[in-house]
Design a protein that fits this description.
It comes from Anthropogastromicrobium aceti. By secondary structure, the chain is an alpha+beta fold. Helix content is 27%, strand content 39%. The chain contains four helices and eleven strands. The strands form three sheets. It has a five-stranded antiparallel beta sheet. Strands 1-2-3 form a three-stranded antiparallel beta sheet. The chain is globular.
């Protein structure tokens, strides 16, 4: 069963009006996210995403070329993303393809930005990053 089929089944079981669900819907199909961005649904290639940051009620998605803001919870996204994404902090999810270095409390991204690693996620982040690099 594809992720798109699962997303459609979840939508069918929800009781909110269809317009609300379409505006809020996030789906993933073949390494692409369908995101509600300014009254439209936009397809984003997951390989283009460097990391995601949660601030307030918004998630900021940083890609190679731009920053996208959506009104969503980070927790709604984390389970939909492919295996090469990892939540290293309550407010951050990184694409391991763009991590060039890991220190105890920081991940250094290919574009020069730094993403914090919380104490809660340090051991798991180290293990997952080492497994990813050595795979």
């Amino acid at each position: 069963m594809s992720d798109c089929t699962i997303a459609a089944q979840v939508l069918e079981k929800r009781e909110e009006p269809a317009e609300y669900l379409v505006d809020r819907m996030i789906r993933i199909c073949r390494d692409q996210l369908m995101l509600p961005i300014r009254q439209t649904m936009e397809r984003i290639d997951c390989h283009e995403i460097c990391f995601m940051e949660s601030r307030g009620h918004n998630v900021y998605i940083y890609t190679k070329n731009r920053e996208i803001r959506i009104y969503q919870k980070l927790t709604d996204l984390v389970d939909l993303l492919p295996d090469y994404f990892h939540q290293c902090h309550k407010s951050y999810i990184v694409n391991l393809e763009y991590v060039v270095r890991l220190e105890r409390t920081l991940l250094y991204m290919a574009d020069g930005r730094m993403v914090p690693v919380s104490r809660t996620h340090q051991a798991e982040t180290k293990e997952i990053y080492e497994n990813y690099v050595n795979a």
